[in-house]
Amino acid sequence: MRHIPKSEPNPNLLVGLDTSDDAGVYQINEETALVQTLDYFTPIVDDPYMFGQIAAANALSDVYAMGGTPITVMNIVGFPVNNLDKSILADILAGSSDKVRESGAALAGGHSIDDQEPKFGLSVTGTVHPKKILANVGAKPGDKLILTKPIGVGILTTAIKRDLLDKETTDHVMKVMATLNKKAQEAMEPYNVHACTDVTGFGLLGHASEMAEGSQVGMTLRYNQIPILPQTKELAEQGVVPGGSKKNHQWLADRVEYSSSISEVEQIMLCDAITSGGLLIAAPEEDAKAIQNKLEDTDIQSAIIGEVTESNPGSIKVI
Q1: What does the pLDDT read at residue 141?
Q2: How many beta carbons lie within 10 A of that of residue 12, not counting itself?
Q3: Per-residue burial over 15-53, b = 16 or more CB atoms within 10 Å of its CB, e = otherwise
Q4: Is 21 annotated as a binding residue?
Q5: The dihedral of CA 159, 221, 23, 58: what is its sign?
Q6: Which of 34, 260, 44, 10 is nearest to 160 (CA)?
Q7: Residues 98 and 204 in one domain
Q8: Which of 5, 54, 106, 176 has the most CB atoms around its CB within 10 Å?
Q9: Average pLDDT of the chain, as a whole number
Q10: Per-residue pLDDT tens for 27-71?
Q11: How does residue 2 score in pLDDT terms, banded at 50, 70 and 90?
Q12: How many alpha carbons fall within 13 Å on the CB side of residue 226?
């Protein structure tokens, strides 16, 4: 992005390229701002219908992370029309459509190209009040940190690709990825939230690091309070780890201080590159507890995993 020439400042562009945030936000009047995002990727599961659901949930998540409500989506498709049965694409589109319908957004169209490898995703437009935007900066000392989905997705989907995961665990991780962050966004909406982001490719620690650095605060995370998907550690110990997770671990080496009790495998798990992860929310303690209680009422697996500190701004401690 540093190679893109800087454009003239636009007062209506409330969130743009200047921060590493989840989506762009453009104000159109005193009451409404547009939230815009785009995401697509190659299949991470064999089931095309489920792949469509996961891709949709992943793209919609960025709007929820900004505190917004999705209103329209457009499909982005790359598909080898001469090499794969078109029914596969139909199933991908059906899965996505069902998940978009669940979000309450409307499918407005899309674009497709003939590509050597299947790719699918969505561009999403949402709305948010200009004074209620949630950014990945703004966390304050004393805030508690809430995570709304378990980590380990990258490791488990790598195991799926290597045919190492049993059906029960495969079904579970796919359900986690396909779960919208809609209920999480609705749960935090009535409360005082200082910062929010969704946990995806940079892993839990990568996205927490962006929040800490942008907010100029420190963070302490408690390993035993972080929800982790079943079999994640066993698979990581066997070396079933995606390359992106290893790169995240290396990138964060100077930004994270680990307790001596946290093994290297556990460190990598915390850096695991995730698809369609949960929200990481920073809120005052009373609000954080209220949000977590509300999430429990809606059967969303969440946990308070740590707190924001004044010391060591831009750094994370894992204990």
Answers
A1: 97
A2: 12
A3: beeeeebbbbbbbeeeeebbbbbebbbebbbebbbbbbb
A4: yes
A5: positive
A6: 44
A7: no
A8: 54
A9: 94
A10: 999 999 999 999 999 999 999 999 999 999 999 999 999 999 999
A11: low
A12: 27
Which of 101, 128, 155 corresponds to the end of one domain?
A: 128
In a domain, 4, yes or no: no
| Domain identity same for 103 and 202 | no
The residue segments making up the domain with residue 122 are 13-128
- For residue 226, what are its two tokens? 């972080």
92 & 168 share domain: no
Report which secondary-structure segment, H or E, holds 126.
Answer: strand 119-128
Residue 5: inside a domain, yes or no? no
CA distance 281 to 286: 13
SS3 for 69-120 is: EEEEEEEEEEECCCCCCHHHHHHHHHHHHHHHHHHCCEEEEEEEEECCCCEE
Amino acid in the structure at residue 63: V
**What DSSP line would sit under 140-161, residue for residue?**
-TT-EEEE-S-B-HHHHHHHHH
**Which is nearest to 205 in space by CA: 301, 295, 277?**
277
CATH code for the domain in which residue 217 is found: 3.90.650.10
Residue 49 tokens read as: 């219908």
For the chain, the C-alpha Rg in angstroms (whole number) is 19
* Residue 22 is labelled as binding a ligand: yes
Which residues on adjacent β-strands are paired with residue 77?
A: 112, 120
Residue 111, marked binder? yes
Whole-number Cα distances in Å, 43 to 54, 55, 164: 9, 9, 17
Cα dist from 304 to 105, 186, 287, whole Å: 30, 17, 11
